[in-house]
Amino acid sequence: MFEDLVKTTAYKKGMPHQRFTFVPHPVWGKPASVHREYIEGKDPITGKPVMQEIIEALTKPLTDEEKKTGFLERTEPRIVGPDTPENLQQLFLKNGWTDGLPIVLPTEKKVAEMLKKTSHRPDKLVGKMRPSPPHEAWEYTVEKVAINAVMAGAKPEYFPVILAIASTGITSLFSSTTSFARMVVVNGPICDQIGMNSGMGAMGPFNHANATIGRAWTLISRNLSGGGTLGETYLGSQGNNLSYNNVCFAENEARNPWKPFHIQKGFKPEQSVVSIFTGWGITHSFGSAKKEFHQQISSLLGSFCPYSSGTSVAGALVLVDPLVAKDLKEVEGFDTKEKLSEWLYKNTLMTVEDYWNSGLVSTFTLPQAQLGVEPFASWLKLPKDALIPRFLSPKEINIIVVGGETNAFWQAGDFRYIGSASVDAWK
Amino acid sequence: MMFQELVRTYAYKKGMPNERFTFVPHPITGQPAPICRKYLEGNDPITGKPIVEEIVGALTKPLTDEDKKTGFLARPVERLVKPDTPENLYRIFAENGWTDGLPIVLPTEEKVAAMLKGTSHKPDETVGTMQPSSPHEPWSYTVEKVAVNAVMAGAKPEYFPVILAIAATGVPSLFTSTTSFARMVVINGPIREQINMNTGIGALGPFNEANATIGRAWTLMSKNLDGGGRVGQTYMGSQGNNLNYNNVCFAEREDRLPPGWKPFHVQKGYKPEESVVSIFTGWGVIRADTTLTEKLHPQIPFWLQFTPFSGASLFLDPLIANQLKDEGFETKEKLVEWIYKNTQLTAGDYWGKYFHIANFVLPNAKKGDEPFASWLKLPRDTLIPRFSSPDRITIFVVGGETNLFWQAGDFRFVVSASVDKWR
Amino acid sequence: MKKGINYSLIGMFLLTSLLFVNALQAEEAKITVLNPLGQPPPIALVPMAPRLGTLDGKTIYIVDVGFTDTHQFLVEMQKVLAERYPKANWIVRTKIGTYFEDDPKLWAEIKEKGNGMIMAVGH
Predict the structure, then answer these.
(1) Confidence band (pLDDT; 50, 70, 90) for B2?
(2) Which chain A residue is nearest to residue C3, measuring alpha carbons?
(3) What is the pLDDT of residues B283-294, one digit of tens each?
(4) Quick one: average pLDDT of B320-346?
């Protein structure tokens, strides 16, 4: 299935006639004898011998087509003729402009209403986004974002939040084969102003703002960066069920005994902010009467992926119900979220052996270690049963308070923080 | 404090609208006796009145005429909504809590009639009954009611037998527990190709109309057909569960099962050519970070550290499934057996770490139920199987083979239902 | 090249919307849709037990539903009530099993020996 991906990537890079050969998949984990078989065998797509294809690709002279220079114009399909709302819904669906669920058709009137809730001009550039680093980045304007916000079903008063998310340029449908999920947490006065849910059922499908804002991000990621095209700009082998809503909710600031997340990141309390996280899954914990919360949380984090590479670092995000937060502060003595992160960092350990055996560590961190990057290089030299911290620093362990206090539970995900953006800037 | 609504509406539904209550501060779990006394000697946080006075008043004050009423409380539901413009109707549906917050397709008579063509069953036939959890009242619903919700979700008529099958199980996707459950629906059989479901790249994600709308229809049905999903009354999940948006709705990748590995429905006794929905319950899905520099199967137990009260579901990309077959697991059953035997925890952790074990299993162990009674007597560091039987462990094959990855969830099987029955 | 794409995309959406305006005007008429709500069952009213007038000489049961780690609250409740109303007989009992289970034996005993009941959910 990589044929499509390879051909369209080359095309987008201006090399539509680049010559390729394919071998059987997978290559990863196979012994040398199998690799030899692959090379001495046939290209599974064309049926021709691999070696022959390679030699021909290197030696056969270029055709006139292949010698062309200039620009490739890409004309986007245009909608022809008047049509019924029915047919337009079907067309949007067929063209891959939705997530499969019904949309609000972006009429001129609806888009205009959405645009009223920002002071920015419709043609102002909001940002640029790409499905993942190798792909081309597309730029988009306030109006483009408005169209997708309308489609998602968002109310105009949600628009500054959606613009803020769009301004980060971060896609919710990252193209990695690992099937990433993304999360957006909203802080500040905007949450109450637009009626977001930070209490009972906050992460579930019970609130218009939480639902449509999260969804808008998925539509933006598809339509404004060419993302979400299976096999080309989305390669997640299995996909991630959290991508439907991108875990969109508001932190419960009223019942948070500590500082709200945005203040921890340097914003003022009266500022409204969106914060983005990336990871894969969320685990639920209901605790037990016996151990204290902080120990139970540490135990839960002990099963999260610890990999780090130059640009990305393993993270943990703990989502505590206000009842748990209260106990952690008043009974267990963690005056601040930072103190809790510090404790969790120091006490969530793993053996060196387990660390180097972790899948993503062996793929992404080992090369760094071998190049001499610290602390990984030193960890390579430690005995197998030596204990090292699972997370690189306390900063990688974040705490958010959310929930309706019907019970002292928490959830935690292998999510790391990647950035925040001001909502006020888009009002 | 938020339990007031729950308590009052619940009493009302049980036919006791004027039942007398008193509230004390929350929580009580784990509070020592002096704190309990302080609560009791203080005031009801809702009314402000002294608690003891309220209790005694509730027991002794004479009944009013209202209190003495008998008979029935009827709660009729009109078949049609009062005619209005589409704009207003979208707003009314959203404000009434009849949606999940996302745009719907308005269920006009025409649209519902088109949906009803997707089944041979009559509109007024009863499909099943559903309740947000066992203490709540069960509601029953017809083919037409399911059609209305299917239209709202954006489903096509050809998806309708699948949605009816889900409705027929009577299992809600929104369970009221404070633990914020998730539910999962997996589809097997020929219907998958017939309605073009996604079993490959991105199968669990928002990339396919059938996967998206069928999963969503279940959420809408769970709100509207059993009075569920009313936050604070029939939904008490403290934080909610993000998987409830789509209820992990996907189809198993039957065409890429390793030879000898059966599709899930065949494991459950259905024929390969039958189409089936299977329901699972749990809380979360995680990514298993395994490596291929060593054998895969010994790494599996580490990623299944789920509550023993539930189960484990493994979502294997076909490449992973084939790798495991190469490691000697001729069938899914052999793999399940190995996982069951080799996924263990200490007796101490079993009894000490898990809320559900303490709440639901410990009382039964104390009563003498086996094997729990014996496990209670074991030394704390004895290893016991994490899951109570191989039945609690499920293997699915799904994915587009872009890499050797897999996911796992703390989901256990609940029930299956025939889709063909509803064609 | 990229600008070309941007304009054409805007053009496409605006074109949609221009086409749309006519359709929308026709749609502002009222329409009829079906109600998605299922039918809740009728509720049979359960008449309330007659009240006691006085607690003197009466036996009141305090029944614990059995949430984890909350029994101490019920015990304390019994103590407080007994201190203030010593002429009544206050008895604490725990319902069998988990909170979902019924306990007909206990209800029979209360009907026979008791004059009133407080059902307590310690959460």
Answers:
(1) low
(2) A139
(3) 999 999 888 878
(4) 96
Among B59, B134, B363, select the one facing C51 at the smallest CB separation.
B59
Q: How many other CB atoms are there within 10 angstroms of residue B109's CB atom?
A: 12
Domain shared by A43 and A155, yes or no? no
**Would you call B180 and A290 a contact, using CB atoms and an 8 Å cutoff?**
no
Q: Say whether both A164 and A242 belong to one domain.
A: yes
Is the per-residue pLDDT at B93 higher than 90? yes
Report yes or no on A252 lying in a domain: yes
- Given an 8 Å threshold on Cβ–Cβ distance, is A284 in contact with B179? yes
* A to B CB pairs, distance under 8 Å: 293
Q: Are C63 and C117 in contact (CB under 8 A)?
A: yes
Contact residues on chain C for B138, CB-CB shorter than 8 A: 41
- Position A312 in a domain: yes
Identify the burial level of A159 via C-beta atoms within 10 angstroms of its C-beta, where 0-12 means exposed, 13-18 middle and 19 or more buried. buried
Min Cα–Cα distance to chain C from A174, Å: 22
Residue B64 banded pLDDT, cuts 50, 70, 90 = confident
**Which chains have 3 or more CB–CB distances shorter than 8 Å to chain C?**
A, B
> Is the CB of residue A142 less than 8 Å from the CB of residue A181?
no
Could you tell me which chain A residue has the CA closest to the CA of B99? A206
- Given a cut of 90, is residue B173 above it in pLDDT? yes
Whether residues A33 and A146 fall in one domain? no
pTM: 0.84
Q: Do C45 and B141 touch (CB under 8 A)?
A: no
- Note the pLDDT tens digit of each residue in B112-152: 999 999 999 999 999 999 998 887 888 999 999 999 999 99
Q: Compare all CA atoms of chain C with the CA of B150 and give the residue at the minimum distance.
A: C36
Amino acid at the residue B341: K
Residues A118, A122, A127, A132, CA torsion sign: positive
Q: What is the 3-state secondary structure (H, E, C) of chain B?
A: CCHHHHHHHHHHHCCCCCCCCCCCCCCCCCCCHHHHHHHHCCECCCCCCEHHHHHHHHHHCCCCCCCCCCCEECCCCCCEEEEECHHHHHHHHHHCCCCCCCCCCCCEHHHHHHHHCCCCCCCCCEEEEECCCCCCCCEEEEHHHHHHHHHHHCCCHHHHHHHHHHHHHCCCCCCCCCCCCEEEEEEECCHHHHCCCCCCCCCCCCCCHHHHHHHHHHHHHHHHCCCCCCECCCECCCCCCHHHHCCCEEECCHHHCCCCCCCHHHHCCCCCCCCEEEEEEECCEEEECCCCCCCCHHHHHHHHCCCCCCCEEEEECHHHHHHHHHCCCCCHHHHHHHHHHHCEEEHHHHHHHCHHHHHHHHHHHHHCCCCHHHHHHCCCCCEEECCCCHHHEEEEECCCCCCCCEEEECCEEEEEEECHHHC
Based on the domain organization, do A207 and A260 belong to the same domain?
Answer: yes
Verify that A8 and A142 share a domain, yes or no: no
B52 to chain C: nearest residue by CA? Answer: C81
Do A62 and A108 belong together in one domain?
Answer: no
Give the range of the structural domain holding residue A239, as residue numbers without chain letter: 85-349+389-426
| B154, B205, B293 member nearest A101 (Cβ) | B154
The stretches in chain A having pLDDT less than 50 are: 77-81
Instruction: For residue B315, count other CB atoms closer than 10 A to its CB.
Output: 31
pLDDT, position A73: 61
**ipTM over cut 0.85:** yes
A-side interface with C, Cβ within 8 Å? 71-79, 81-85, 88, 105-109, 111, 138-141, 143-144, 147, 289, 407
Q: What are phi and psi of B130, to 5 degrees?
A: -145, 150
Q: Which of residues 207-226 of A touch B (CB under 8 A)?
A: 207-212, 215, 218
Q: Which two tokens stand for residue B285?
A: 């899905």
